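Exercise 7b. Backbone tokens:
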């Protein structure tokens, strides 16, 4: 890979300039006002894949935003890596909290990024990380060091739930046939401590509605004699966990994966400072399920959290009202062997069972996703580990993430493929927030590392 690495070093500024061009496009998939911008984003991604040397590039229409597909098949007998990413971005709001315009990328130095970071919406999530793959592919291709086949599937709806991706995959299983899926939409512990995400939690998301009287009532005339839906809802929510922060829904833990002591010890190798963790989010103490560390509670254990609660009068001043309805949004993060269908049904049964007769309860399921795990003894993980060890100078730590990427389970269900999550972002990169950024170190380190993944994966699959 010497020629490839030399090509990367000699083209760093061009790579950055071209990424800036992509970052200037406000490809916000959630806002119909930006539909043309999303299309422009797809066209520019397709252009760069073509210029990088892909033999076949298509902009594939869907019922929503387009998917960009590209491929380079050098030998059908060699392994094939399918690269997935997305070119759509979150809205920039609240715009007034940005230190510089969200779609005018700039380089700024920070304490964590003394060599500079790219500040722009999509810099890390996921344009910057997608672009690493396109430029790594270009470097291997132009240097005649492409070790195996590659396919690209870059979508424009990840930030709105990838609604049309499943249809596309099911209709194009032959086109997407591969040996492994490679994704860079995650991160590392720090620039000094590389890591690979080996697990993602699943998700069950519901909205609950508690109804009492048939209209809002005067709290003086009716208070104390009619159930207040907000009070009832608050009491019901308090019954969802016990004093040891264990979820009380019957059967909730029936299928939960229990990790071995060896696996927990391997995960514990990751550097972690609990005082720094608390300080970073301005809390005095952590809390969670008894018997597990803070890191474990946020990765290998299921959770239940209220994401929003509302009802009654919340405007300025006072209004003495006893509300007719109260609402809450609740998410449950799931671990391997739990399914959103199972957990949603158990939640619904339990929540309805604890409702007093003074109210009626409705549980509305929203969306969900299955958990996913990449075994650390798989060729995909080994290839990623070997590649990162070459460029970072130390062996990466396997980590399970607390977040959810439902498409990873979809890939396994429909295509029968495991996914390697080899991302290069940092938790401090402010993705989805004002002042999103991505370190130059991380951007270039990703481009350097990806070719070694291709090389290592090809060696392991001969």
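Sequence design result:
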């Amino acid at each position: 890979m010497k020629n490839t690495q030399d090509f990367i070093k000699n083209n760093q500024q061009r790579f950055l300039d071209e990424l800036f061009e992509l970052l200037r496009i406000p490809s916000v998939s959630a806002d119909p006002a930006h539909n043309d911008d999303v299309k422009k984003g797809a066209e520019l991604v397709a252009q760069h894949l073509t210029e990088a040397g892909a033999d076949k590039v298509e902009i594939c229409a869907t019922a929503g935003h387009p998917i960009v597909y590209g491929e380079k098949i050098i030998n059908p007998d060699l392994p094939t890596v399918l690269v997935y990413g997305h070119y759509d971005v979150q809205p920039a709001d609240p715009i007034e909290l940005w230190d510089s315009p969200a779609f005018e990328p700039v380089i700024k130095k920070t304490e964590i990024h003394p060599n500079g970071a790219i500040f722009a919406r999509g810099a890390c999530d996921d344009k910057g990380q997608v672009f690493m793959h396109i430029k790594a592919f270009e470097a291997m291709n132009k240097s005649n060091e492409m070790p195996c086949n590659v396919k690209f599937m870059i979508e424009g709806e990840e930030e709105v739930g990838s609604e049309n991706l499943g249809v596309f995959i099911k209709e194009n299983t032959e086109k997407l046939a591969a040996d492994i899926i490679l994704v860079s939409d995650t991160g590392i512990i720090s620039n000094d401590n590389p890591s690979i995400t080996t697990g993602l939690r699943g998700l069950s998301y519901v909205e609950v509605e508690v109804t009492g009287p048939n209209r809002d009532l005067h709290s003086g005339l009716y208070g104390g004699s009619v159930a207040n839906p907000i009070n009832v809802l608050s009491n019901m929510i308090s019954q969802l966990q016990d004093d040891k922060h264990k979820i009380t829904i019957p059967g909730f833990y029936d299928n939960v994966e229990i990790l071995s002591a060896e696996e927990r010890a391997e995960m514990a190798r990751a550097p972690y400072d609990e005082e720094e963790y608390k300080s970073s989010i301005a809390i005095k103490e952590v809390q969670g399920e008894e018997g597990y560390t803070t890191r474990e509670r946020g990765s290998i254990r299921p959770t239940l959290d209220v994401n929003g609660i509302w009802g009654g009068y919340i405007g300025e001043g006072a209004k003495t009202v006893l509300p007719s309805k109260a609402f809450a949004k609740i998410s449950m993060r799931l671990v391997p062997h739990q399914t959103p269908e199972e957990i949603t049904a158990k939640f619904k049964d339990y929540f309805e069972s604890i409702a007093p007769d003074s109210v009626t309860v409705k549980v509305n399921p929203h969306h969900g996703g299955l958990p996913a795990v990449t075994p650390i003894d798989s060729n995909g993980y080994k290839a990623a580990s070997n590649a990162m060890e070459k460029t970072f100078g130390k062996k990466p730590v396997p980590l399970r993430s607390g977040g959810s990427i439902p498409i990873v389970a979809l890939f396994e269900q429909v295509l029968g493929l495991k996914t390697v999550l080899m991302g290069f972002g940092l938790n401090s990169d402010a993705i989805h927030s004002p002042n999103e950024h991505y370190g130059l170190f991380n951007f270039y380190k990703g481009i350097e590392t990806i070719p070694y993944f291709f090389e290592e994966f090809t060696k392991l699959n001969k």
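Instructor comment: The longest strand covers residues 202-211. Residues 384 and 453 are 5 Å apart (CA to CA).
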